[in-house]
């Protein structure tokens, strides 16, 4: 499994951003191997973390060629003050107590 952590400092979102963001999420959900996402907001700042779960690197790469996703990456300065993407291969997960809220999200 692979995780893509998208750390962002949001700027101003407009209607075009909302439409593009919705299209990108739909493209992710339509990609074989997409497992879900989780979002966290930092209580001490406006920083947001979005973690996307992917079954394989191939699935992630398949999503990466989506035209809406490419367009959004080119225009990031219009909507974010800063961003950082980290791709991580998960070797093992374990824990207890989260039940239906366990990773990856269903």
Observed structural traits:
30% helix; single chain; alpha+beta; 106 residues; four-stranded antiparallel β-sheet; Alpha-Beta Plaits; 4 strands
Fold and architecture overview:
This protein is α+β, with helices and mostly antiparallel strands and 106 residues long. 30% of the residues lie in helices and 32% in strands. The chain has helices spanning 15-30, 57-64, 67-74; strands at 2-10, 34-41, 48-54, 80-89. Strands 2-3-1-4 form a four-stranded antiparallel β-sheet. The longest helix is centred in the first third of the chain and has 16 residues, at 15-30. Pfam families: Monooxy_af470-like.
Principal-axes geometry comes out as globular
Question: C-alpha Rg, in Å?
Answer: 14 Å
Task: Give the N-terminus to C-terminus distance in angstroms.
Answer: 14 Å
> Can you count the helices?
3
What would you call the structural class? alpha+beta
SSE arrangement, N to C: EHEEHHE
Q: What is the CATH class?
A: Alpha Beta
Do you know the CATH topology?
Alpha-Beta Plaits
Mean pLDDT: 87
Beta-strand segment tally: 4
As a percent range, the share of helical residues equals 25-40%
Strand content: 25-35%
Low-confidence stretches: none
Number of domains: 1
**Judging by the overall fold, what is the CATH architecture?**
2-Layer Sandwich
Main β-sheet description:
4 strands, antiparallel
Strands in their spatial order, largest beta sheet: 2-3-1-4
InterPro entries: Dimeric_a/b-barrel (IPR011008), Monooxy_af470 (IPR025444)
Organism: Haladaptatus pallidirubidus
Protein name: Heme-degrading monooxygenase HmoA
Pfam family, one: Monooxy_af470-like
